[in-house]
Design goal:
Length: about 190
């Protein structure tokens, strides 16, 4: 399974928690997504899955894989509730020492709820088999990876993921593995 985080938005570039709010890619995000076809061409995907939010859908489309994609609401980003649109610094002004992974968000999803969605996605992907590409969001993909590795969802706290990054998960000999993480070589300017 290949994971692709969506390209940049104005909110992601300024560190705003962007859950179920649906901003489009900004110019940088469009450029990032347009750089994805070449590195993704090393795989022959049997299926594509994508979040229903437009930043992921636009990334999938610019990567050239939207034609056969299935759109899955379980791949949406964490619902940040009252902290939607705020930066971590703004949240810390209200709650010093706050940590998303340990403290959660008021009137949004808990880590356990995000993990339940990730577990449902994983079950469907395992049933589908073959090489699959998934276009989604930073925190959701971090939780999905933790659950793929049969680890507590809080492991995602330690898996940073840049916009338009490509990661690879595999399943061999009865064990899930992390093959590559947070690859952004395709975004580096030549020379």
């Amino acid at each position: 399974m290949v994971l692709v985080r969506h390209g940049a938005t104005d909110w992601s570039q300024t560190g705003r928690h962007t859950g179920w709010t649906d901003p489009a890619l900004n110019d940088n995000g469009v450029r990032q997504a347009a750089a994805l076809p070449a590195p993704l061409s090393r795989w022959t995907f049997d299926a594509a899955r994508c979040s229903t939010l437009q930043r992921a859908r636009m990334t999938c489309e610019l990567a050239g894989l939207a034609g056969n994609a299935e759109f899955d609401p379980d791949l949406r980003e964490w619902n940040y509730g009252d902290y939607e649109g705020l930066t971590s610094a703004e949240i810390h002004e209200q709650r010093p020492g706050w940590n998303l992974w340990g403290d959660g968000v008021p009137n949004g999803e808990s880590l356990a709820q995000v993990a339940e969605r990730a577990d449902r996605v994983i079950a469907r992907l395992r049933d589908a088999g073959g090489e699959i590409v998934v276009f989604a969001h930073g925190h959701l993909l971090r939780v999905l990876t933790a659950r793929w590795l049969a680890q507590p969802p809080r492991l995602g706290e330690y898996l940073h993921l840049f916009t338009a990054a490509i990661s690879e998960l595999d399943h061999q000999q009865g064990r899930s593995s992390l093959v590559a993480w947070n690859n952004t070589e395709h975004l580096r300017a030549p020379g």
